[in-house]
Design a protein that fits this description.
The protein is α/β, with parallel strands linked by helices. It has a nine-stranded mixed beta sheet with strand order 5-4-1-6-7-8-11-10-9, with helices on both faces. A six-stranded parallel beta sheet has the order 14-13-12-15-16-17, with helices on both faces. A two-stranded antiparallel sheet has the order 2-3. Strand 13, helix 11 and strand 14 form a beta-alpha-beta unit. Helix 3 packs across helix 4 and helix 10 crosses helix 14. It is globular, with a radius of gyration of 22 Å. It binds adenosine-5'-diphosphate (ADP) and 6-O-phosphono-beta-D-fructofuranose. The site of adenosine-5'-diphosphate has 17 residues, from helix 1, strand 12, strand 13 and helix 13.
Length: 482
């Protein structure tokens, strides 16, 4: 077994096996922010990525991507149900997102979550070099740091939570709250998107574990675990380059033409998830149409909602509700050949997303709660032309970094309507000034900055961060869908 000095452990590998229309297996970039962010820094790094390849049954054999080795972890159908769809995405996910949807507490899921976490820990222990670094990601694998420490005390272990970490009064609802907290605190450094999360964990560690805790260090069972905020970002250079490619600009012009050359294009791009605030947004938009503040001939809304967690009941219900609502709005306000909303429930290549970002006059990113929201950052990076307005939820992690956006409380439908109208009618000079400030911020805070900041904090010598930046293997051998 080949071993690596850096091992990343995440629920998903950066590849997802999709059944092609002819039944053949087609590998694509995995959906969601985490895979995109990590893939950008590891694509050419000499590291191993431990994760699930997206199907059920025996793990597939995967070839390396450049210097990055892939170590798949298999899941059975029952494990997929109990670990991924159940405990991770029906208990932790809604609870960690302010319980905007009622979390399900099913006692049968816990044992599967625990045993799958143990499998990930064992796989990481197998591929990590002596004294190496293992970086564990997200709520799916919250028990892995402690399990791994028991298996391999020689390792330096990091944990990063991509989603929000809830306030104590919500976390306290969790039936397995002590085990989950202890599991995460098995790491040497626990990173979050926002400082508030580190504060929440410190309070919980004091209350539940009797630890001595501040907002940047927790001492428990004689060990000190450091904590801190490391806001994740995107590959700014990649998005910039993509969005200024001539074919992407031509595609953007074509899109505007296909949309009927409206005065304004509003765009939303989300995973189809109840945390993303899609229903609140549709309500606001339909009320603007009804009041005549927005006219179908002048303005279109393009809602991209990529399918996500499709076997989970609450996601199926959400899809039915959204599609019913889009149909109702188009039925009531659309005209022949002129729908009020263009709804696209499909994955897109990165270049197509870039073309959409370039087409939008107003980008509407209004999650009810979001760890970061990389779509907001992608939009800003794509707007080399300085055009476009960003309407951004106060409840997205990105709001703390992009205060020049039109910030909004998405629960307040009237406030959302006003903000949309303000963004639609803003002075181009004001928009350009806002965009310049946001672009300047992103230029200094890209995905490389994030990885360097986290890994330098984890490994004080700085050699790990240096190795990632400098010791690059030849370019990736997998042709990504771009
Ligand atoms: P989350 O991690 O909750 O999915 P983020 O906004 O942080 O939310 O990340 C979403 C990622 O998924 C972004 O990188 C975005 O470009 C990508 N994405 C969103 N919609 C699509 C789509 N229809 N096709 C392909 N990628 C998409
Ligand atoms: O951090 C949010 C997250 O769960 C990530 O792990 C992933 O990027 C995204 O949502 C997509 O979710 P899933 O892996 O369940 O499709």
């Amino acid at each position: 077994m080949r071993q690596s000095s850096l091992v990343v452990v995440a629920n998903r590998l950066p590849l997802d096996d999709n059944a092609a229309p002819d039944g053949a297996c087609e590998w694509r970039r995995s959906p969601g922010g985490l895979a995109g962010a990590l893939h950008a820094i590891l694509e050419q790094a000499p590291a191993t990525w431990v994760g699930w390849a997206g199907g059920v049954g025996p793990a597939p054999t995967l070839t390396d991507i450049g210097g990055l080795r892939l170590r798949p972890v298999s899941l059975s159908r029952d494990e997929l149900r109990g670990y991924y769809e159940g405990f991770a995405n029906s208990t932790l996910w809604p609870l960690y997102h302010d319980a905007v949807q009622q979390p399900v507490f099913d006692r049968n899921w816990w044992e599967t979550y625990r045993s799958v976490n143990a499998r990930f820990a064992e796989a990481a222990a197998e591929v990590a070099e002596h004294g190496g670094v293992v970086w564990v990601q997200d709520y799916h694998l919250q028990l892995v740091p402690q399990m791994l420490r028991e298996l391999r005390p020689d390792l330096l272990i990091g944990f990063f939570m991509h989603v929000p970490f809830p306030p104590p009064e919500l976390y306290m609802q969790l039936p397995r709250r002590v085990e989950l907290l202890r599991g995460m605190l098995g790491a040497d450094l626990v990173g979050f998107q926002r400082e508030q999360a580190a504060h929440n964990v410190a309070q919980l560690a004091t209350k539940l574990l009797g630890a001595h805790a501040t907002d940047d260090a927790i001492t428990v069972d004689g060990r000190t675990v450091r904590t801190g905020a490391f806001p994740v970002s995107i590959d700014v250079a990649e998005m910039r380059a993509l969005a200024s490619r001539p074919d992407v600009l031509r595609r953007s012009e074509q899109l505007r033409h296909d949309l009927g050359q409206p005065k304004r294009v509003l765009l939303s791009v989300d995973r189809l998830d109840y945390t993303k605030g899609i229903e609140h947004r549709l309500t606001a938009y339909s009320e603007l149409l009804r009041a005549g503040h927005v006219k179908v001939r002048d303005t279109v809304l393009v809602q991209v909602a990529v399918p996500s967690r499709e076997r989970v009941e609450s996601y199926q219900d959400l899809r039915d509700r959204i599609e019913g609502e889009v149909g109702r709005i188009n039925g009531e306000f659309g005209r022949v050949g002129e729908p009020a909303i263009h709804y696209l429930n499909q994955p897109f290549a990165r270049s197509q997303l870039a073309a959409l970002y370039r087409t939008a006059d107003v980008m509407v990113v209004t999650p009810l709660r979001d760890g970061m929201n990389l779509v907001a950052k992608e939009f800003v990076a794509a707007r080399e032309d300085g055009g476009g307005a960003l309407v951004l939820s106060e409840f997205a992690g990105a709001a703390a970094e992009l205060p020049q956006a039109f910030l909004v409380n998405p629960h307040d439908v009237d406030g959302l309507k006003d903000t949309l109208l303000r963004a639609m009618s803003a002075d181009p000079a004001d928009l350009a000034a806002r965009m310049t400030a946001m672009r300047d911020h992103l230029a200094g805070h890209d995905i490389q900055t994030w990885a360097r900041a986290y890994l330098t904090a984890l490994d004080h010598t700085g050699s790990l961060a240096e190795r990632l930046a400098g010791d690059r293997a030849p370019a990736a051998s997998v042709a990504w869908h771009r």
